[in-house]
Amino acid sequence: MNNHLTLELMTPQGDIAEIIQAIWCASAHSEGDQWLACDGATGVIFPVAGELFLDDQPVAPPYAFQQTSTHASKLSFSKEARFCGIRFNPTILPQLHATTHSLVNVESLNTIATGLKKDPSLSAFVALLSEYLTLPKVINRGTEHSKHLIRNLINLTPLETAYQRAPLSQRQLERQVKNQCGVTPKYFERIYRVKMAKQAIKDHPFMSFADIAQACGFTDQPHFIKEFKAIMHITPAKYRKLLSDSQSKQTKLILR
């Protein structure tokens, strides 16, 4: 995540990847903040030790659901805080709740939280989740069109083209995605464009913002800067500086 945190992360493969983006555990070396990008996904956070805040609101044990947000969320933590989480793909959490899936019922989540108090490592977390991850695949035909549209937007397919590729009307898709994810397809398009720009800044530290704006489909550089700041709560220039400062610190540690 950043210099304040050590992050252990597992990206599921196979059928589970249809449901879960990531399973992760973090430990804080010092007090700090981390901005979490909004990408339409949802999750469950398990605070294990120390203090944890999401958008300045305390995340109290044993767990808290992270709902879809229309902007980046600020995660704040105390020194030596430990916390773990599950990151679900868009549309999945409402399905799990609607089908009373055991992965998200109170008893299961309390059992997982109790286990993490004993061992908050990634391997222990995955072991605690294992019986729920082997349950039958969550199937909801009503969300298939939404998921197809979102996959197109993740791949930066223009929104109008994504609508044309779907068997439902634009109005039906807009209503369906909004109901299932809490944000509109248009907003999904904005988030993923910014997410692509964020990765471009990381991969190409000397690329001009004008070139990044063009490569990522923004109208121009001012539009890119405005959208990036609105969604990430940080300017592209400041984000690039944070990446550069982080790299410099890592280099100094290696040289020592």
Automatic annotation (TrEMBL):
Keyword Disulfide bond listed: no
Lineage: Bacteria, Pseudomonadati, Pseudomonadota, Gammaproteobacteria, Alteromonadales
Record domain HTH araC/xylS-type: where: 143-242
Protein name: Helix-turn-helix domain-containing protein
Keyword line: DNA-binding, Transcription, Transcription regulation
InterPro entries: AraC_XylS_family_regulators, Homeodomain-like_sf, HTH_AraC
Pfam families per record: HTH_18 (PF12833)
Gene3D superfamilies, alphabetized: Homeodomain-like
